Amino acid sequence: MLDYFFPNLLIGLREGLEAALVVSILVAYLVKTDRRNRLPVVWAGVAAAVVLSVAFGALLTYVITGLDTFKQQELAGGFLSIIAVGLVTWMIFWMRRTARHLKAELTGKLEAAIAMGAGAVALMAFLAVAREGLETTLFFFSAAQQADSQLGPLLGFLVGIAIAVALAFALYQGAVRINLGTFFTWTGALLVVVAAGIFSYGIHDLQEAEVLPGLNTLAFDVSAQIPPDSWYATLLKGIFNFQPQTTVLQAIAWTAYLVPVLTFFLWPTRESAAPPAAPEESATRAGI
């Protein structure tokens, strides 16, 4: 169970903290500007976004399990995995680019929404959280579908979400001080590794669905040294999606994704090379 626990905990922690920080920024701005009467509207929008994300996950599960044939399930799972990798890659780079301006962007949109009325405030909060929630749900679903049991992935994901919420609340209260730039850099790099495995897994699904060729053309076979039913093979598969029998196309896809994406992600930008100029950048207190 623990083999799929840790990567899904990472997904829940990283993506959950992004959404929780969005909420904390909105709440902190309303409290600071003495508009607490708008808080119920914001929480209503957040609750609606959470419900939508859960419903989206249930819909994905229903659709995939309801497909008639194995090839149809592999085809759908493969395409969903590739889409999920594309979305999470975009979100990782988006957060890297906009993190230091996120507070100003969100509070500006919230101020405009307040001028338009309660419905606009709820919609703004809903859209801000739903974007994170839907992307997180799809990525979690793609990461978890390779597991034999959903208990480990679900437990890891929920623990990650719980830690993210607790951490965001502690940041809001000023109880802890962490550098969120460093946090998002390390977790983003780990997510890229997880995403590379999901991408490779998606390619294998498409090979089993006979959409892509080369299912029996192996890049390597170390099943004698790493038996697929061993605990360490299961652990490697859960964390890195490593398979003792890996096709050439899988190996190419994993390398073609991981090397350039991780290189570009870790490559220092002009902004990141410059010393931080504002307390927001060190993120000692979320949204304050």
TrEMBL record:
<keyword id="KW-1133">Transmembrane helix</keyword>
<dbReference type="GO" id="GO:0015093">
    <property type="term" value="F:ferrous iron transmembrane transporter activity"/>
</dbReference>
<dbReference type="GO" id="GO:0033573">
    <property type="term" value="C:high-affinity iron permease complex"/>
</dbReference>
<feature type="transmembrane region" description="Helical">
    <location>
        <begin position="183"/>
        <end position="203"/>
    </location>
</feature>
<feature type="transmembrane region" description="Helical">
    <location>
        <begin position="150"/>
        <end position="171"/>
    </location>
</feature>
<feature type="transmembrane region" description="Helical">
    <location>
        <begin position="43"/>
        <end position="64"/>
    </location>
</feature>
<feature type="transmembrane region" description="Helical">
    <location>
        <begin position="76"/>
        <end position="94"/>
    </location>
</feature>
<dbReference type="Pfam" id="PF03239">
    <property type="entry name" value="FTR1"/>
</dbReference>
<feature type="transmembrane region" description="Helical">
    <location>
        <begin position="106"/>
        <end position="130"/>
    </location>
</feature>
<dbReference type="InterPro" id="IPR004923">
    <property type="entry name" value="FTR1/Fip1/EfeU"/>
</dbReference>
<keyword id="KW-0472">Membrane</keyword>
<protein>
    <submittedName>
        <fullName>High-affinity iron transporter</fullName>
    </submittedName>
</protein>
<feature type="transmembrane region" description="Helical">
    <location>
        <begin position="248"/>
        <end position="267"/>
    </location>
</feature>
<comment type="similarity">
    <text>Belongs to the oxidase-dependent Fe transporter (OFeT) (TC 9.A.10.1) family.</text>
</comment>
<keyword id="KW-0812">Transmembrane</keyword>
<feature type="transmembrane region" description="Helical">
    <location>
        <begin position="12"/>
        <end position="31"/>
    </location>
</feature>
